[in-house]
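hi!! sorry for the late reply, been swamped w classes. u asked for the two structures so here they r. pasted raw, havent cleaned anything up. first the sequence of the first protein and right below it the tokens
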Amino acid sequence: MTVLSIRHKTTYRYRELVQLGPHRLMLRPREGRDLRLLSSQLDVLPEATLSWTNDVFSNAVATANFSDLTEQLTIESLAVVELAAGPWPVFDIAASAVRYPFDYSDEERTDLGALAQPHYPDPPARLADWARGFVRSQGTGTLALLKDLAAGVAAAISYQSRDQEGTQSPVQTLDRGWGSCRDIAVLFAEAARTLGFGARLISGYLYNPDRPLTAATSEGSSTHAWAEIFLPGAGWITFDPTNRAVGGHNLIPVAVGRIIDQVMPMTGTFIGTSDAYQGMSVEVQVTS
């Protein structure tokens, strides 16, 4: 068991007084078999009215509503979690899915629904053709195929931090040969979907006390994005293609979704002049 303290502070600055619209915040770590949430606190300045709900994926969502004009917005999340995931996971994949290709059961395919369907248009099937290149032979090992795909994404795409809003399409990422962790996660998930797998995207935190990983700060912690693939028997298996990793022993999930826009930590609007927005800063600390 590892107990971690997470501090995530985001500050938005404006050149003049602005009226803030509702802000959607997804910052509360997601409890599960390998993660227990010990405490969670969310502070917002200027003062806001917070309302909590769960979305269709059971993510905890806070909506902040503001009444005062302001030149600065600060959102700080403090959480303590207990991680139980091991560094060398063993996946009990059902015999029917050990070899690729395999068929999901009718119930599984119905429940996966859009999670098993490509999201981005790809009329020339460039992404599908690229993904099929990792299928070594008919009846190849399913887990080996997914590991090869994750390694292939990491080999083809150089990590590059990108502060701009939005996410590149998978084909854009392939063409450019670089992307942020969210671009890389989207490419991997979408490529897996073209092969018939159910996939979902995850946002959260990356922690490594021994050495900085790709997408990590010098302290070994960062906001991060990765993906999960559903395999019968094993359930949802974590793949971090940015770091060529399988399993989530150093990952703290916050939100899951079908597309990356559904798992953004915070989104919101303001009313002001077109040049009112001055910039933002993000601080993330994950410590044991």
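now the second protein. again sequence first, tokens right under
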Amino acid sequence: MPAITVEDLTVLPRIRRPGLGDQPRPVWQVTTAPQGYEGEGFPVRRAFAGIDLKQLDPFIMMDQMGEVEYAPGEPKGTSWHPHRGFETVTYVIDGVIDHQDNHGGGGTITNGDTQWMTAGSGILHIEAPPEWLVQRGGLFHGIQLWVNLPRDAKTNAPRYQDIGSGEVRLLSTPDAGALVRVIAGSVGGYQGPGSTFTPMTLVHATLEPGARLELPWAVEYNALAYVLSGRGSVGVDAQPVGMGQTAVFGAGDFLTVEADEAQESRSPRLEVVILGGQPIRESLAWAGPFVMNTKAEVMAAYEDYQKGRFGLPVAQA
């Protein structure tokens, strides 16, 4: 897994242990992601399926893309499509994908890079593997997260943050049994590089077999943990979790994730995405690629798209 790492975790800053009086977050729910296909046919797991949107707020959805080993000619992407009213966060763990939009933005996301795209008032974009990857094939694995925007930011101009793998804040547990990559937000006073409209934290953690992660978490945030690969448990009552499962935590000062002592040979460690944010608590109307506050605003977005007010794909401009 080429996501940014270090050989010796003992050289990294350590996350503090929970203090006296710190309360552990209970586990409210564990769900299993259904599998499907997105875009032109690349496999995804719908990480948040079955979770009430009120518990997800400020998040809308998250897809685990792959993990898939493409043969030559198989890599797939998406066609041109619109977005309005939210942000997409694309984190590529393995492989490479190219992005382009009709505002002149875009670039290549690969091996631990993150692209944070604010769709805002409206954008057309396309995500596709580079031609050399289509011809050669190869491994692809990543996530795409949709983050809602508050009402007063839904009409902001589109913008980007390109977060290179080398910019990610790296931490370890007191016993150096887990690597914690802070992509956005703050963990135990250590700040990640991502800048967000809605206060939130996004982490990718790798736990060695038997390792335990007690992660301090902002009390005003919700908290979710999604297992990319491996087996382990969550919460102080050690509820079992495995690949493709999401744990929803309740309130508290820290959350707990632990890797099983025995892991499968193809997934020797527990890989987990941990995220949470400050709920927006506004009305939500979501249909397809548009996330607004009312049904009328969603219908207006569809009309704007159909009448070309989002602009044209670059190839047709």
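hope this helps!! also noticed smth abt the second:
The chain has a mean pLDDT of 92.
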